[in-house]
Amino acid sequence: xxxxxxxxxxxxxxxxxxxxxxxxxxxxxxxxxxxxxxxxxxxxxxxxxxxxxxxxxxxxxxxxxxxxxxxxxxxxxxxxxxxxxxxxxxxxxxxxxxxxxxxxxxxxxxxxxxxxxxxxxxxxxxxxxxxxxxxxxxxxxxxxxxxxxxxxxxxxxxxxxxxxxxxxxxxxxxxxxxxxxxxxxxxxxxxxxxxxxxxxxxxxxxxxxxxxxxxxxxxxxxxxxxxxxxxxxxxxxxxxxxxxxxxxxxxxxxxxxxxxxxxxxxxxxxxxxxxxxxxxxxxxxxxxxxxxxxxxxxxxxxxxxxxxxxxxxxxxxxxxxxxxxxxxxxxxxxxxxxxxxxxxxxxxxxxxxxxxxxxxxxxxxxxxxxxxxxxxxxxxxxxxxxxxxxxxxxxxxxxxxxxxxxxxxxxxxxxxxxxxxxxxxxxxxxxxxxxxxxxxxxxxxxxxxxxxxxxxxxxxxxx
Length: 463
Ligand SMILES: [Zn+2]
Hints:
This protein has 14 helices and 22 strands. With 463 residues, it is an alpha/beta fold. The protein has a seven-stranded mixed β-sheet with strand order 6-5-4-3-2-1-22. The protein has a seven-stranded mixed β-sheet with strand order 7-8-9-10-11-20-21, covered by helices on one side. Strands 14-13-15-12-16-19 form a six-stranded parallel β-sheet.
C-alpha cells in the first residue's frame, strides 16, 4: 500500500517535503528549505534521511523557498529526475533558486571572514551552479486537467490563491489497480483577495494534508486598505519613512496594488515609493504576464492601467542606488526584502530608520520564530543588525491582514467543501501551538480526528 513520510513542515512552518511511495516508485511533493532557528537550519546540513538518488520525481505546489529551496542541495546528493511545476512556478524558481544559492555563497564567505565555521574553508549549503543545474530538470505541467507522472501517480492541480502559480494538489496513487486520492493543500491563500483567484474547493480526498500556519487564529477583520491609509498618512504628516519589509513574491505586489488604489482614491499623498529589491521588480513582471492566475477585478484594472505600480515609483537595482535611499529626508515609502528581516537590503534600511521615531515599520506577513521580524513583533527595544544593537524608536505596525495565508476560518471553509471526511487528515506546516489549536477547531466543527505528524514520521495509507 502507498506510504507517506513527512520530511519537513511537520511541527514547523518551513522545509516542506513529503515523500510518497507506491510500487517501489518514489515521488517527493515539494522540496523546501528549513528556515528560522538554528536547530531547524541544521536540518538543511544534516545527511538527508532518504537516499536522494532513489527518488524518481519531484512535484512542486508553488515557488516559495520553504517549498523549493532545497532543490539545489538535491543536485549535490544525486537527484537526476524531472521536477514538475506549472509555468509561473517555474519562472519564479528561475529567479528564486539562484538568488537563494547566492545568499548561501555569501553566508559562507562571511563565515570565512569571521572564522565562525567548523569547516575550513566554510562551504555554502549549495552553489549558484547547483541551482542552475536543478533548473534544467524542470518540466512544466498544465494548470487544468489530469497530468500522468507514471502508472503509479497522476495529479490534478487546483488554484490555491496564495502566490502566483500556487496550487494545491489532488494526487491519485494507483497500486495493484486500486486508486487512492491524496490531497496536498500546499499553502492556501485568502478568499476575496485582490489580484489572484480564490482557493478552489477540494471535492474528494481519501487522505488530506492541510497546512496550519494560522490554524490558531483569524486575521484581524479590520480593513487592510483603511489601516494602510492611516499609517501612511500619519507617517507622512510627521515627516518619516514607512519601511515595509516585504516578501519579494506576493506581498510586494499586493502592497503596490493597495498603495496604488489609495493614491487613485486620493486617500494618501502621492509619496515616492522605493522598490528596493531587484527580485521584487522582476517578480512583478512575471505577475503581470501570467493572466491565468488573475481574478476578474484585476483583469478589468489591467485594461485601463498599471495596477501594480504607484504613481511615483523608483525601482532600485544597484546597491549604490539602494544606499542613496538613506539620504532621502522627506516622507517616503521603502519596500525591501527579506520579509522576516533575516537578510537582504532591508537590514540597512532598518539600521537607518529604526532609531527615528517619525518612521514606521510595517510587518506584513508571517514572522517565524527566531527571526528579527518576530522580535520586532514582540516589542523588542533593540534589534541586532550588522553586529550592532540598533534602538527601536520607530512605530511598529502589524498588518497581518495582508498575510498570504488563509486564517483559521478560511482553512475550515476550504475543508468544509469536502463531501465526506477523509480517512485520515494530517495537519502540517504550522508551529506547535497553531497545530494543536487547529486540531481542536476541526474536531469541534466537523468531529474529525486530525493527526499531527512529527519530522521523519512514516505511515502507510491503508484502505
Ligand atoms: Zn508559500
